[in-house]
Amino acid sequence: RERVRAMFYHAYEHYLESAFPYDELRPLTCDGQDTWGSFSLTLIDALDTLLILGNVSEFQRVVNVLQEGVDFDIDVNASVFETNIRVVGGLLSAHLLSKKAGVEVEVGWPCSGPLLRMAEEAARKLLPAFQTPTGMPYGTVNLLHGVNPGETPVTCTAGIGTFIVEFATLSHLTGDPVFEDVARKALKALWKNRSDIGLVGNHIDVLTAKWVAQDAGIGAGVDSYFEYLVKGAILLQDKELMSMFLEYNKAIKNYTKFDDWYLWVQMYKGTVSMPVFQSLEAYWPGLQSLIGDVDNAMRTFLNYYTVWKQFGGLPEFYNIPQGYTVDKREGYPLRPELIESAMYLYRATRDPTLLELGRDAVESIEKISKVDCGFATIKDLRDHRLDNRMESFFLAETVKYLYLLFDPDNFIHNDGSVFDVVLTPYGECVLNAGGYIFNTEAHPIDPAALHCCRKRKEEQWEVEDLMREFYSLKKNKKFTLKRAADHGEGESAKDPEDASSEKGGETRNSKKSSRSLLSCPSQSFNSKLAVLGQVFLENN
């Protein structure tokens, strides 16, 4: 654990000295470069890692730096996917951890705050990408002008299906449903366009919904779509998202799984197209552990660990039949996925093999990639040549998952035995009780926070009272189905006037009422429980 802490500070301090305010450190030349926009990305990505390591003073300093220095009104073409997972995810996580880090939060937190406003501003810059006929977003957006004319409509599956965690969190905290709505629409568009055998491909045209790359698998281009179905289901307690994932899981097992490896297959036929393991696929055992499939997860994890031991890292592509790297894909950019799976599986099993992988990772990274100015991407695992780049995910994910693997008492692993009670404008709220959901950039989201900012609590109670009243009426058989015959809606059609008129003490016959079936009279909330079970709220 202390070696991991030292790794973090070696990289972080050199980023601050040599690269800030650029996005990333170039560790071989000790300078910086902008890569995914121009957001001081490594600083945003590393922020919650600082708190996990216990450094509250630096967390507080960085929060102030980001508030003063980050501007999203810039003429930059940004990846919609990367900006969401790194910037929006990083800011949301830091916002929700602010109070724990001793930041003086404003009245109304966690339903308001400067980092939440920054996350919302960044997310709004991404919304134009979702304005397509299918609801699936473009892959790139200009932060000032929206989607460029002539922008390619071809986006990878993960670039369409990796928004629900951040966007639903934003919607729940801000009260604006637009973010969750676009994320759900995109998820469902992919689901609707799966093949007859239940698989999705790699790249799709977001204007026509035609699959451009038809390779189906669990790795690059697809990976976090599956991850977000599971994590979105847990975060939102959403059975529909989980059932979608479980259907995909059946198809993945039927067509792509061979001897605890997962291959790439043609999405319509199920025939093998690439017998290759990609390092990005190493998240899968961790995802399996989240749905309780621990035995299968361990078997697959051990396959992947044999590759790590062969090279001292995971090559981007590994040819399974040949047992060796694939040409031009021999690098290891210090990715976190295998360590992430080890962390999840260690929480589930306490198997010491998983700690050995962690120790191997620390030793490999220190021995091969450590340089004077940080840690460098490994360009080729065969001869240990290095590349002049340190991706921001090294501090956001790789170091974080390693630290959490070796720190069983970290607050992130809280089992609910301790928690904070926070007063919000909407009542008392429990936070920091554990159960954190990591986004795909390892930014932890506290699921309890999504229940802190629900407006119209009193209306919710009124609905419950009304439902109780309705069922007591039902028992006494005092309700009618008068309009069923008139409107051809079968037995389920009820007269909204009849349902709501009790308050006025009179029952009006539907035929005498000139008001349309779908309108709401201007009365109290009680009378707005209207047609076919739909609740009409004032802002609609």
Throw out a few tags for this protein:
three-stranded antiparallel beta sheet; glycoprotein; metal-binding; 23 strands; alpha+beta; 18 helices; 540 residues
Structural summary, described in words:
- The structure is a single chain.
- The chain has 540 residues and is α+β, with helices and mostly antiparallel strands.
- The protein has 18 helices and 23 strands.
- Strands 5-6-7 form a 3-stranded antiparallel β-sheet. Strands 8-11-12 form a 3-stranded antiparallel β-sheet, with no helix packed on it. The chain has a 3-stranded antiparallel β-sheet with strand order 13-14-15, with no helix packed on it.
- Strand 6 (203-205) and strand 7 form a beta hairpin.
- It is globular, with a radius of gyration of 26 Å.
Query: What Rg, in angstroms, do the CA atoms define?
Result: 26 Å
Largest sheet: 3 strands, antiparallel
- What topology, given as strand order, has the largest sheet? 5-6-7
Low-confidence stretches: 478-537
- Derived from helix and strand composition plus strand pairing, the structural class reads alpha+beta
- Helix fraction, binned, reads 40-55%
Please report the total strand number as a whole number. Answer: 23
Mean pLDDT: 89
Main location: endoplasmic reticulum
Protein name: alpha-1,2-Mannosidase
Cofactor: Ca(2+)
Keywords: Calcium, Endoplasmic reticulum, Glycoprotein, Glycosidase, Hydrolase, Metal-binding, Unfolded protein response
Brief rundown of the structure:
By secondary structure, the protein is of the alpha+beta class. The protein has 18 helices and 23 strands. The longest helix has 19 residues, at 457-475.
